[in-house]
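Before the break, one more example. Copy the sequence into your notebook; we will annotate it together after we see the structure.
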Amino acid sequence: MNFIIYMNKHRRIFIIILLCMAGTVMIWWVVSAGPTTVYRTVLYNFSDIDDDRIFPQRKLTSAPLAFLFRENIRTQIASLSVRLGGNEVLLKELIDMSKTTAFLVIKDDFVVFEEYYLGYDRSTPSLSFSMAKSFLSILVGCAIADGYLKSVDQPVTDFVPELKKNGFASVTVKHLLQMTSGIDYTENDFPFGLHVRFYYTDHLEDEILKLKLREPPGRRFVYKSSDAFLLTLALRRALGGKSITEYMQERLWNQLGMEYDGAWSIDHAPDGLEKTGCCLSATARDFAKFGRLYLNNGRWDGRRIVPESWVKESTKLDVSDGSARESAGHLGQFLYINPTAGVIIVRLGKSTWGLSREEWGNIFMSLSESIRRQLENGAESSQKQRTEQRHDFRQDIQDKR
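Here is what the structure looks like once it is written out:
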């Protein structure tokens, strides 16, 4: 009996100690990250493609004159097989099993396949996640062309001097674009880590100004969203009184004839900072227009939107098969461009189905080639049929004579 009383007493002490430790951690978390950040992290936990609904937004309005892809060609690509490892799977099965919400394929400005799933449709906006980093790169290229930035070699501290004391004087715009900044930042889903804090914070600029270097810039590539967020702050300040959303509206959204409204998530309303490392909301068709812009090396219907040299430089690291370009985001958001085949693919969804970016890229590449062959064969067949019809017509005339 005494032993039981002893154990119960010490169990209570142990529980009290654990509660005190948990309370201490919670107090530290709230003080260091802020109450709103902690609230959002606990409430929403893992990120999702519908997270545009939980953050304040800065709206992008549909273009006065919308560009519409042509729609009178459709292919049966859903019945095509794709190779995964040593097995072949129907594309339709892959789409169904991978929680895909949108799958759009465009060939030479024609929509050849378009399907939506899980309650999504053509007008449903979806969060880009890290595809947004590619769009940020386009905006930086435009800002250099427009004179807001001098060049990619300009030190970021020209716009964010507060970071000089943290050793950022030698960090350039190019380092941030190429993710060779040396910033001390780990990209993971640890709830107390910087990555989750940057995603849910309501004071993003303050968090950016706390960044430190792990190593000198330029040494090596390390994928991390901190570089995009710091670049965002630099671009915002370079633009003067203009927000990144306003600049994107006039420089890209209107120019590309976006059919639907979009939005940048911001950390807080009304004067917050756009979360350009993760959080552009748009429809599949409007995402595809960024692909069309790059498919045409920065030109849009004869007009130069982005310098061609910028397009070539910014896609060097994205080339996987000698020509194809790909932008990818968390949970399998993909914008794939194959200039050789003239194909753009947008895949949006809630899961990658355990497939790597490389495996998805291989799927897109094989689909691009299959579509190109299918349409070429169809064109040859149609030409042969028209030739035979003309021959039959001439033969009918001769017979009547």
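The chain is about 40% helix and 15% strand. The mean pLDDT is 88. Try to locate both features in your own notes.
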